[in-house]
Amino acid sequence: xxTIDTRDEYxxxxxxxxxxxxxxxxxxxxxxxxxxxxxxxxEGIFRVAHxxxxxxxxxxxxxxxxxxxxxxxxxxxxxxxxGGLPPDAIDVLSACLDALExxxxxxAAGVGxxxxxxxxxxxxxxxxxxxxxxxxxxxxxDAALPDLTGWAExxxxxxxxxxxxxxxxxxxxxxxxxxxMLFEALRVHGELVGxxxxxxxxxxxxxxxxxxxxxxxxxxxxxxxxxxxxxxxAGVRVCEAEGVAPxxxxxxxxxxxxxxxxxxxxxxxxxxxxRLDELLHLMGELVQHRTTVEAxxxxxxxxxxxxxxxxxxxxxxxxxxxxTRVRMVPVESVFLRFPRLVRDLAQRLGKQVxxxxxxxxxxLDRTVxxxxxxxxxxxxxxxxxHGLETPAERAAAGxxxxxxxELAARHAGGHVIVSVRDDGCGIDPVxxxxxxxxxxxxxxxxxxxxxxxxxxxxxxxxxFSTALATTDLSGRxxxxxxxxxxxxxxxxxxxxxxAPEGGGTCAExxxxxxxxxxxxxxxxxxxxxxxxxxxxxxxxxRLDGLPVRTVRGAALLPLDGELLPLCDVAGQPLRGGGxxxxxxxxxxxxxxxxxxxxSALAGQRELVTRPLPRAVSQRAVAAGGAVLPxxxxxxxxxxxxxxxxxxxxxxxAPA
Length: 655
Description:
Radius of gyration: 31 Å
Number of strands: 22
Shape: flat
Structural class: alpha+beta
Largest sheet: 6 strands, mixed
Number of domains: 5
Strand order of the largest sheet: 14-18-19-17-16-15
CATH architecture of the largest domain: 2-Layer Sandwich
CATH class of the largest domain: Alpha Beta
CATH superfamily of the largest domain: Histidine kinase-like ATPase, C-terminal domain
Strand content: 15-25%
Helix content: 40-55%
């Protein structure tokens, strides 16, 4: 096997793990900035640098190796200091993080590392004094043996030191890779206190025997299982370290029974995203065929067929739910980009900000999470630029100098709510009204009656901005309208609360758990089928006998003390009356209720959605299409696009 072939084979795993390590590095840098004497954070930076160095060395990425080697060397010295890191360490570490992220993305793009480590290595070296000869000798040794003197007396309760010996297979072509993987697998169980080769020099390893000493609360079987999962090993032995448990002085292979039990546990497998998409597509086809079979079975009189179809439906529905869950990923993957963004923007704006993140383990469909980043970036930048005040302004208002910005996610029925909240100055209705009048969005009388809720809605108007000057952060009027458009494209909605409890502003994004399938109400209009997402349906009524009013030629339906605009499936308001005999579906559209006139109601269905061709989606008020049991196609209505201004109300004004 050639070096190029090996690199190509391991590249996806390298990229995935490198990105995870870089996320950890970013969080460790933020912890160090908040507490320069945080030894755990310093240890974290050292471990990330060490792991990246080993991975990159085995892949042949020498520039990353040089930079991470310098980071590892410097932090091995810095973590021995008292009093924490020097003040300029954060800037140097941030520059290293940026360089490593850029290098990893360049590798992913197939253009190589594109990294010159020399300037950053020089800046790193300036943070710490040179090594002593003794330190260099210890650093470059071939083994790192644990000091067991007194360990038995000082060890924490329930913890023991296990000795792992692994013999590499004769045909193992990359011993350094296997040694590194073994060390990383054992670190999951506790602290790696020693190894042969020394963990710091594993990239130079070319032998056949690897040893490790792990301080852990796990049992022998657990370590044996993790070690054997590395692969390309001829044998593994795990035992109590000598000098700690004399009765177990010799390493024996773990008992087969507990090992078998451990192997029956849940393992994690990396799966290519394209395979998941293909699996979901096939699942969608199965759901369509199931629906067709259900329709045929309802017309046939075959003994036992209804019961068999019911069992098929239950099994396929369970399979569909399982496949959907496989695609779910935590929003943490999006949240982790914001600590660094908030830090950098706060420094530029001269503001002090505490970022709080809650519900990062909340899961969403991968497609939704991938598209969530840009809208959240807009909201966070707005909160920092327009919402939170400078320390002097907060002091004058009687507030603490440090503002609070909170990112939170939580489940709400079949949706996930992601919120961006700040405790800043909030939305000024007077300033918004003045700007709206200047742009022709409101008349003077409407502006005088504008409340905080109406002011918040106006911020979503295209091109609207209250910034006095255009900067690279704000003033161009591109932001909130783009956020709403992006969120609606995902089948969600965004709203602004201008007066949340505690003051400031709160933006909420209501997102579907998955885009793969929806529960929908099927309706017909002139014998053509349409699907309305069930979560947008408020109620259905018949128009027979209901009083329909006409204002400036447009039909309005009085319902529940509110005048609802009557519109058709193209989003056009009905003119005049004459709608008797039709049904009305009251939907939530763009934050308000709209009465959609249809010919008939066909019932509730579980539908698998498909994107529309671009030529169709640009002309139709539809968010997608769905295949029906009879093979026909139903357009899935985009409820938000149905919302039209009330008669006499300017486009973009609050409802």
